Amino acid sequence: MSNYIGWILFFSTIAFIVLYRIFSKNPEAFRSKYSEFKSIERKYSSPEKIIAALEAAGFCRVRHYSEENRFLATGKISMSSWGEFIEVKLIKDNAEHIICFKSVCSFLFQVYDWGKNKRNAKRFFKALSEI
Questions:
Q1: What is the Cα–Cα distance from 82 to 61, expressed in whole angstroms?
Q2: At 79, is the secondary structure helix, strand, or coil?
Q3: Do 124 and 85 reside in the same domain of the chain?
Q4: Is pLDDT above 90 for 42?
Q5: Are 127 and 56 in contact, with CB atoms under 8 Å apart?
Q6: Do 21 and 49 belong to one domain?
């Protein structure tokens, strides 16, 4: 029994994470993620500029869902992570426009990202300001 205690703990932890995600209805639980909200000028809020910024920041498979005013993209595999899911939402208020940027590691059990998700946000906002 003592020979298997490590494996028992490992599989118990995996089972706990999976069950927690199911019962909490939060598929991003125990997964590394980063969100940032920024108010932007109206001239940066067009879908074409956001798509161009996502592509200039190095993200792949950029898609735009105009009904939800939402953009999806993927990050590349690196030594920090096995890729990321990128989501950008554009919220248009009367006076201001707000961009909600979210980067989530694509590997289901990656709980630490070595700062990759935050760097993704910085790259996106820098590319958006340069366009």
A1: 16
A2: coil
A3: yes
A4: no
A5: yes
A6: no
Q: Are residues 95 and 77 in the same domain?
A: yes
Sheet-wide strand order for 84-92: 33-40, 97-105, 84-92, 70-74, 60-65
Global pTM exceeds 0.85: no
| 17 in the same domain as 51 | no
Q: In the predicted model, is pLDDT for residue 65 greater than 90?
A: yes
| CA dihedral sign of residues 79, 107, 99, 50 | positive
pLDDT digits (tens, 9 = 90+) for 28-39: 888 889 999 988
Q: What is the pLDDT of residues 84-120, one digit of tens each?
A: 999 999 888 777 888 999 999 988 888 888 889 999 9
User: Is there a single domain that holds both residue 69 and residue 124?
Assistant: yes
Q: Which domain holds residue 82?
A: 31-130
As for how many domains the chain has, the answer is 2
Query: Would you tell me how many other CB atoms lie within 10 Å of the CB of residue 53?
Result: 24
